[in-house]
Amino acid sequence: MRIQSAVFALVTTAFVHIYLPQPVLPLLAQTFDSDMVMVSFTVSAVILGMALSNLPFGLLADRRSIRPIITVGGVALALGALVCAAAQHLWLLIAARFLQGLFIPAATTCVVAYLAKNLPLERLNVVMGTYVSATVLGGMGGRLLGGWIHPPLHWRYAFVSAAVLTLLATAWALCTLPRSDIGANKAPDAARFRVLLTQRSLLRIYLCGAGAFAVFSSTFNYLPFRLAGAPFHLTTEQITLLYLVYVVGIFIAPLAGRIANRFGAAPAMLGGVTVLAASLALVLAPTLACVVLGLTGICTGFFTIHAAAVGALNRRLSSGQGRANALYVLFYYIGGWSGITLTGLAYKFSGWAAVVGLCWLLLLIPLRTGIIEKGGR
């Protein structure tokens, strides 16, 4: 239990960094005299960095003990946050965020591989749901830290706070995790990246995560611009409070793992897609109550799909957990980066309705995965 708690804290603090500037993107646009697409790179640059570094970290997770990986990752994340806090130019902020993204997999991909190797199969779905809950708490905490806990005019202090939290969580993990873990000293297993990519059953799950996260990240990334304008005209603090709907994922993710255990991954995926699609319609409405309800549904649907996909992936693996999870996260974050970039252009030229329309199209990817999984192919 102490190990799971340490892992939970580590993953949570890692995810705090990803979305830290998201609630204050309009403020960053003013601070650096830039537009919404450029300042959105402070989020998408992290996601791109994570996507690029996941494969190397996946290899390390299959070959090395997790302790030195966590040490390097935690220190690099904290230092990157301090550079962000001091940045006086937008491109320096974006570059520091990209470097942070390169080291986040040390506390995400590698930890998933560690759990997959060290836990019995019957507990894996539920614990993976708990892991997803940590990502939820971290995502919500980062948004609250960036836009609410610290006054918006002092957003730089949020990066300093995140650096301190990361160092504390890293120290706790190093004091708690065993000095050697199962599989750390084993010879490299036979599951190569090429093999894992050519298995259709695994590739479908990778694409499912990518499509679902593209929808989720796009919706939440441009939400501040939508709510800051007509007809809402919300302040930064009010917009940040809406990210509290994220708390739904803390409870939904473990529940999705139990549902997948009992009924299978496919029903969980299809249920999540249905809820997510309906909720996107609600965020089109010009009333705040509908937007809040829609955001709650988007969180419910997305985290159901994500938890079911992560659990289904790791239940299929007998070896190569580090590589397979690295590939999943690679697809996942490339999906998020692509979604943010494409919907940003759609929003700039055609407005919020274009963002929602593109998200509906992206939902066809996890829908197809769920249908095929249900058919047992």
From TrEMBL:
Domain of life: Bacteria
InterPro entries (UniProt xref): MFS, MFS_dom, MFS_trans_sf
GO cellular component: a single term: plasma membrane
CDD domains found in the cross-reference section: MFS_NepI_like
Alphabetic keyword roster: Cell membrane, Membrane, Transmembrane, Transmembrane helix, Transport
Transmembrane segments: 36-57, 69-92, 98-116, 128-149, 155-177, 202-220, 240-257, 264-285, 291-313, 325-346, 352-371
Start and end residues of each Major facilitator superfamily (MFS) profile domain: 1-374
Record's protein name: MFS transporter
Species whose genome carries this gene: Desulfatitalea alkaliphila
